[in-house]
Amino acid sequence: SDSLINRVIAFYEEADNPRRLVEAYYLQGGTYRDLEDAPRAIAAYQRAADLGKEYANDTLNGRIYGQMATVFAYQDLYDASMEASREAYRYQEACNHYSGMAYTLRNMARIHDMLMRKDSAELYYRKAYHLMYDRVSPMKACGIGNEFAGVLLDYKKVDSAFVWINSKLKPKFIFFICKTVNSFIFCFFRNI
Predict the structure, then answer these.
(1) What separation in angstroms does the CA of 83 have from each of 50, 74, 80, 173?
(2) What is the pLDDT along the chain (192 residues), one digit of tens a residue?
(3) Residues 137, 185: Cα–Cα separation, whole Å
(4) Which of 41, 53, 169, 177 sits between 20 and 30 A of 3, alpha carbons compared?
(5) Are 67 and 81 in contact (CB under 8 A)?
(6) What are phi and psi of 84, to 5 degrees?
(7) Is this prediction's pTM over 0.90?
(8) 59: CB partners within 8 A, 6+ apart
(9) Helices 78-94 and 58-74 sit at what angle, rounded to 10 degrees?
């Protein structure tokens, strides 16, 4: 239910506290997202974004736009999702939030994939993997790399998927990847 967050918003509106109001609108957007009320979620995130331009830090603004992008994507509004993702990335880059940047790039790759822009999807997956690997965590990069290998298999690029696994993933995380390699072998035989 949204009754509690609506009371918080009313309090910060009356107290004329725009910094806290940005956070409250962001939380309201999350509440509506969880209630699967996309129009109200987007409206709340937009209020947070509008107010956040003046009163929030880059980290919070990046999260606001990232959540907007997610809600748009769930509604199959991929152009709006890509636009919100670009804004999220811009704010994340401004505060050197590398993991946020990498996940945003991954999400942009997913959008390109949904729009059948295979070359762009591959490019964004590669950028996301390398940014996560170089700046955040090789283990977290492995998750992005696994997803990318699966996408390559979906594109019927089996050889490219195995090259990716062997060159980027397998040498670094043998135990973790062994399970993935087995599932890719299963996918390989299934796709023949």
Answers:
(1) 15, 14, 5, 35
(2) 899 999 999 999 999 999 999 999 999 999 999 999 999 999 999 999 999 999 999 999 999 999 999 999 999 999 999 999 999 999 999 999 999 999 999 999 999 999 999 999 999 999 999 999 999 998 899 889 989 999 999 999 988 988 888 887 665 544 344 344 445 444 343 333
(3) 26
(4) 53
(5) no
(6) -65, -35
(7) no
(8) 91, 92, 95, 97, 100
(9) 160
Tokens of 98: 């590398």
DSSP state of 56: S
Q: Residue holding tokens 């957007």? A: 29
Which residue is it, tokens 């919070």?
60
Amino acid at 26: Y
Q: Residue 30 contacts by C-beta under 8 Å, 6 or more apart in sequence?
A: 41, 67
**In terms of residues, how long is the chain?**
192
Hey, what are 14's tokens?
Answer: 């009356």
